[in-house]
Design a protein that fits this description.
This protein is mainly alpha-helical and about 150 residues long. It is built from 8 helices and 2 strands; from the N terminus they run αβααβααααα. α1 packs across α3 and α6 packs antiparallel against α7.
């Protein structure tokens, strides 16, 4: 008992693919007898032929991954896909660097390791992008002997 033509007709009436057509296994003989579109439509209205629901995409795995990322997992260097500026923009990089440099300069000034005039000069150089890190700033201070001489 082949229901190929009935399944094809039902699919076109329901507007779904042939694989989504469900036929009641108890009423196969009735479906087999139906050969016209009208008869198939009648069977659909009686609930003997139905369209199966679409299968969705499960979000379960995505939710688990999202929870892990919230915890800070899966964010290491091996998981990064963009260029270095896609991961941390140039601007963000600059902000982080200048904040660190200014914090270090403030500390040196407040502990009286450098004079106020030296502080101002180094502050301006930092703003100009002269130092690439705090270590670079410290190196510059050492090379140019800008540490305050402690007399005593």
């Amino acid at each position: 008992m082949s229901l190929r033509s009935q399944r094809r007709l039902a699919a076109s009436i329901l507007g779904v693919g042939v694989n989504r057509v469900w036929i009641d296994p108890e009423r196969m003989d009735e479906v087999e007898a139906a050969i016209t579109r009208e008869e198939i439509e009648r069977l659909i209205s009686r609930g003997i032929i139905k369209a199966r629901p679409l299968k969705g995409q499960s979000r379960g795995r995505t939710r688990i991954l999202k929870a892990k990322k919230r915890k800070g997992r899966r964010r290491g260097p091996g998981s990064r896909k963009g260029s270095k500026y896609a991961v941390v923009s140039r601007k963000r990089r600059w902000i982080n660097r200048i904040r660190a440099l200014r914090k270090r300069l403030r500390l040196l000034r407040d502990r009286r390791i450098i004079t106020v005039s030296t502080y101002r000069m180094l502050y301006r150089k930092a703003k100009g992008g002269m130092f690439k890190s705090c270590a670079d700033l410290e190196r510059y201070i050492e090379e140019h002997k800008l540490r305050r001489r402690i007399l005593g």
